[in-house]
Description:
The complex is a heterotrimer. Chain A has one domain. Chain A is built from 15 helices and 5 strands. Chain A has helices at 9-27, 35-58, 64-84, 86-112, 119-137, 157-175, 179-198, 202-220, 223-243, 245-255, 266-278, 301-309, 311-334, 338-362, 380-409, and strands at residues 2-3, 139-141, 144-150, 153-155, 414-415. In chain A, the strands form 2 sheets. Chain A has a 3-stranded antiparallel β-sheet with strand order 2-3-4, with helices on one face. In chain A, strands 1-5 form a two-stranded parallel sheet. By secondary structure, chain C is an alpha+beta fold. Chain C has 1 helix and 11 strands; from the N terminus they run αβββββββββββ. In chain C, the strands form 2 sheets. A 6-stranded antiparallel β-sheet of chain C has the order 2-1-11-10-7-8, with no helix packed on it. A 5-stranded mixed β-sheet of chain C has the order 4-3-5-6-9, with no helix packed on it.
Amino acid sequence: xxxxxxxxxxxxxxxxxxxxxxxxxxxxxxxxxxxxxxxxxxxxxxxxxxxxxxxxxxxxxxxxxxxxxxxxxxxxxxxxxxxxxxxxxxxxxxxxxxxxxxxxxxxxxxxxxxxxxxxxxxxxxxxxxxxxxxxxxxxxxxxxxxxxxxxxxxxxxxxxxxxxxxxxxxxxxxxxxxxxxxxxxxxxxxxxxxxxxxxxxxxxxxxxxxxxxxxxxxxxxxxxxxxxxxxxxxxxxxxxxxxxxxxxxxxxxxxxxxxxxxxxxxxxxxxxxxxxxxxxxxxxxxxxxxxxxxxxxxxxxxxxxxxxxxxxxxxxxxxxxxxxxxxxxxxxxxxxxxxxxxxxxxxxxxxxxxxxxxxxxxxxxxxxxxxxxxxxxxxxxxxxxxxxxxxxxxxxxxxxxxxxxxxxxxxxxxxx
Amino acid sequence: xxxxxxxxxxxxxxxxxxxxxxxxxxxxxxxxxxxxxxxxxxxxxxxxxxxxxxxxxxxxxxxxxxxxxxxxxxxxxxxxxxxxxxxxxxxxxxxxxxxxxxxxxxxxxxxxxxxxxxxxxxxxxxxxxxxxxxxxxxxxxxxxxxxxxxxxxxxxxxxxxxxxxxxxxxxxxxxxxxxxxxxxxxxxxxxxxxxxxxxxxxxxxxxxxxxxxxxxxxxxxxxxxxxxxxxxxxxxxxxxxxxxxxxxxxxxxxxxxxxxxxxxxxxxxxxxxxxxxxxxxxxxxxxxxxxxxxxxxxxxxxxxxxxxxxxxxxxxxxxxxxxxxxxxxxxxxxxxxxxxxxxxxxxxxxxxxxxxxxxxxxxxxxxxxxxxxxxxxxxxxxxxxxxxxxxxxxxxxxxxxxxxxxxxxxxxxxxxxxxxxxxxxxxxxxxxxxxxxxxxxxxxxxxxxxxxxxxxxxxxxxxxx
Amino acid sequence: xxxxxxxxxxxxxxxxxxxxxxxxxxxxxxxxxxxxxxxxxxxxxxxxxxxxxxxxxxxxxxxxxxxxxxxxxxxxxxxxxxxxxxxxxxxxxxxxxxxxxxxxxxxxxxxxxxxxxxxxxxxxxxxxxxxxxxxxxxxxxxxxxxxxx
Lengths: 416, 465, 149
């Protein structure tokens, strides 16, 4: 009984083709040969090869396809970032490399540790601390207070708080089945969400709220309480609509952005025009006008992808995120302890919700919120925290793999 | 654990549905709204494309050049009056209006070009050329109409009710595309505004066509005859006929011919608001017109809460609004056996390599009334012109039918004024023409709008349409 | 730069091709992997351990070969058995190994040599991990899963 794990090398090969061809194309977009583009492309490919092969050989059981999907998403992001501004692409690349370190650390931590036990309480305080930090000390950028300046860098503490939050949620929801011990934790999450609303980071608030609800349902299965939670959430959303003018603006321009097409609705109108210009096949790399869209390299990166690469590739990107979710769910289903199950599930859910909320906002399916598209949007904190989430997922995958291997060995098989 | 497994499966299923919905929404939104978003004003992409491409020529249906490129510049019809009359349809080169220059930019700038054709073109050193398009409008007809309108603001739309082709759509005042950037401020934006497709006015007595249709479709509710004394009271408010003329004993036909408000007001109350709304929506009110060839604003019909509101809405006041194009389509429906055709503006598009990219095809838009009822309405409208309020629209040797409208409104200064409306058709297989005339604030429909319609019909038939 | 524009315009198809190829690959492999895994883990669930050949006189069976043990096993040289040992001294249907409650029982079926840890097996005997079974001239070590069914 020999179980051969399937290699993702062929996909990696295609990714390398994609990256090299795109960067070669970009290298002569200005008429003169741009060496930096080619270097970036080759550098990225080298890092991918190293990353994939080293991780594969050191950790025998990582989920290779999840890793490959992330590499692909990052590549598409990198190509577009370079097209927009070579400097941000370079910074994005650096963040990616730092993110790899975060990934490995997270992987090792999960591999070694069990449930963290008492440490969770410290994580709770850490989450609250980080969120309060951003409420109190942050600069206001784009109407939301979530960036803190440290030297030459701006960081988003709420992104890191995400990690701790998921870990604590997984711990408490797996430990307690009955409602009463859970109430303090639920109140705590309510407080966190409230702090986020006060910071006007509505996207993160929604994200935390929805993730808590899904993890709660997955962990305890109490449908009625979950529905109650939804009700409270909707009530809160409605209240914020009534209370906060900036929420009202968001909802108004969601309904009809064309009325205010030069003022508040400008961003979403330009985004829609960009997507429409791309049509199915796209306008061609570097042939569109994405710079007309505000925040094109962060929130609206999906619109740029649709404009230059076409909607077919836009849909493919959505499909890749969906595959990512499905594979993450498989890892969660295979987990051996409830804590790990909820942990992976929480990470997967958060990444997928993030992806859904921002893409749906850009295509005007739901009101726009300011959150990042994982692995593709420019943002150091976003990249590092997403890589860390990936590390957690891979960590549990490794644990699963080891248990699977033990079982197979016990009947005389081998895992290759 | 197993319970958790089931929950996880369930949530993942929900996620899959959400993502699938997102994909479908994206595809749907782009296929339905994509072109509209692209041609919205202030789209920087069209502007940047223009720098590198020689845009194609726009022809009218008789082959006259309406807009063409000479080197870097865009040129328009030499004759000033013709240029102004087709200005809203042709549009401008700066994305400030939504005419053909923006709406059909896809053809004019060659967006759908073959990649191979493009490469070979580049290698041969040619500058890229866009495709030429032919519109359905007639420049000569448009020019004649503008002359007839003179200095009166408003719109005239002429359609072929069998095929849906727009033969002319004139919005007065028109503009000079060369000087489009100079129109600024409030008067400026009024000039650039296409009143034919986007101007929403109260229909006034025109709406009686819809009310009559509702009566015909609900025969058990018809008021057989009524004695009109020039005014009637509904809920302690008065509804009067024009000039408080008493029309005497009227049935549907006579009330329609004389445009008797009291009859239709009472009929509206008898029908009740819901039936009126249903009938209006059958005719296309409250519907987002997603036509292939043009952007038309939505016509509105609100169901009144009280009887007096319902009465007013039944005679085209209250909150009723309609665009001149839609009004013309309604006239066409009556003439075309109850079938409303989708208005078409693009006749054909031909690529630089002389291959035909597009040819006009007719699309049925809605079927609001049965053929039998449409014929009844048609006879009533023929009577209006023969001996009713619309005699001003008579043209010798042509069977003209129509309906006048005098829509009350209050202008910005608070004065009560009236829009002059006339919608009509020629009941002749060889000249399947219908039209709508709207003159802003001009006064009585029969007095001012009907004669313009007569001239328009005559010119159209003279030109052979 | 006109050449750039034309090339970029043509390359759209290439990019779409690559991305769709990757998507299709990932989907196909994921589905295949899922099926494989499911099948294997199912078997891993139903099997109780394995026998490892520690001595063989040569022929078809080599030292180190492994035979997975299902809930019920027939050992013999006939190909109808689920553990086939084609050696001299192995009868067509030689022995049976099956699970009974918490125990695993070795039963001699035919008159061939069946020994457990050097002692002949008369009828049935319970076996444990680490035991050496002799079937004819072939010696096999017993490995059992820790948690039995």
